[in-house]
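Case study B.
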Amino acid sequence: MVTIVTLDPQNRRHRRQAAELLVENFAAWPAMEIARAEVSTLLARNRVCLVALNEKNDVVGLVGGLPDYDGNVWELHPLVVKKSEQRKGIGKRLVTAIERAAKARGAVTMMLGTDDEIGATTLSGCDLYEDLWLKVRDIASLKPHPYTFYEKCGYTVIGVVPDANGTGRPDILMAKRLGKRR
Ligand SMILES: CC(C)(COP(=O)(O)OP(=O)(O)OC[C@H]1O[C@@H](n2cnc3c(N)ncnc32)[C@H](O)[C@@H]1OP(=O)(O)O)[C@@H](O)C(=O)NCCC(=O)NCCS
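Model:
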């Protein structure tokens, strides 16, 4: 059974395991030293950092959230599930948990960016300044890409940052309404 809890800053083992998940899954954190620094950042006072723990009390998932726009909007960043535990519903549960935490702190919108650095969607490898909104409307996946995971969690593509990771490698922006508009 997997439980979702706030990452305890004092728990060095959980912090290390959280950093290991980043190294295992993301090119952006190629080494433990850099990943450990990221985990410290996620533990900043204004942020929320949740982990999924398995029955052995090992970290098998991590999600972070941080406020923006005076707290009306929270950004979901990062989200990761241990490779051996993916496709078992843990990612979806982490998303629900961080949404609940953000909503409890006053958020009306959750947003995120999901990069396409590997030509996994039709938004990659093209000039997004031409027919931008048609391309966004007609987005499709060419290989598995997390944007479809987020769609299953209720997120909508709201835009794109062209060339965010180099020419033709965009960041796909997505958002979800968490509550009533104030
Ligand atoms: C993306 C990620 C967090 C999803 O977590 P997960 O625990 O595997 O996802 P879940 O089991 O909760 O899946 C929920 C649904 O999304 C689908 N899904 C999961 N990962 C997917 C992916 N990468 N691409 C497309 N669909 C995906 C599942 O099949 C499932 O569909 P269903 O409800 O129709 O059965 C996980 O695959 C991961 O850590 N990937 C590497 C890091 C990453 O890409 N993070 C996101 C960066 S923005």
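Residues 25, 79-81, 86-92, 114, 144-146, 148-149, 152 surround coenzyme A (CB under 6 Å). The remaining cases will be described in the next quarterly update.
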